[in-house]
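Thread amino acids onto this structure.
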């Protein structure tokens, strides 16, 4: 069997194991290595996909990524880690709680949706992603091109 050819930007398990914790954006989890420009760009793109990281760890990871980006010549327009995205239940369907098969037999109106606001409820303190998730649940047409205020208007029946 032919050996897989490794590009210069790929790290195998052995390479990752010898890297110090400080070479990772998230050192506790040893996630997102920052050893070259390609990996720095990848860490920026996947920042919001790292699970089980506290806000403090994300802030530290963002500082590490910014330093690595400068060191490797990667342009970074974000000035705060929150601009890279933050995990929420609306971002990943795999994190949403799953009800039993009986839910499929309920009508949309009769299904329980937890604490999600209903028509006429105030949406002022929700993020755009949360508003979008509610619009998707209600099957509001054109939701993908709406901004936050348009989503609020559509959800309030306007």
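Threaded sequence (158 positions):
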């Amino acid at each position: 069997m032919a050996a897989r050819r490794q590009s210069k930007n790929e790290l195998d398990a052995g390479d990752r194991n010898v890297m110090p914790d400080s070479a990772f954006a998230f050192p506790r989890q040893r996630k997102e290595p920052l050893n070259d420009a390609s990996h720095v760009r990848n860490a920026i793109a996947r920042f919001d996909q790292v699970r089980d990281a506290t806000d403090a760890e994300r802030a530290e990871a963002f500082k590490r990524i910014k330093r690595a980006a400068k060191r490797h010549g990667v342009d970074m327009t974000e000035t705060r880690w929150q601009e890279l995205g933050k995990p929420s239940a609306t971002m990943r369907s795999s994190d949403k709680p799953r009800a039993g098969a009986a839910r499929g037999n309920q009508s949309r109106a009769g299904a329980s949706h937890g604490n999600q606001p209903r028509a006429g409820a105030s949406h002022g303190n929700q993020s755009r992603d949360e508003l979008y998730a509610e619009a998707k649940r209600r099957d509001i047409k054109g939701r993908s091109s709406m901004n936050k205020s348009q989503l609020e208007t559509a959800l309030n029946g306007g």
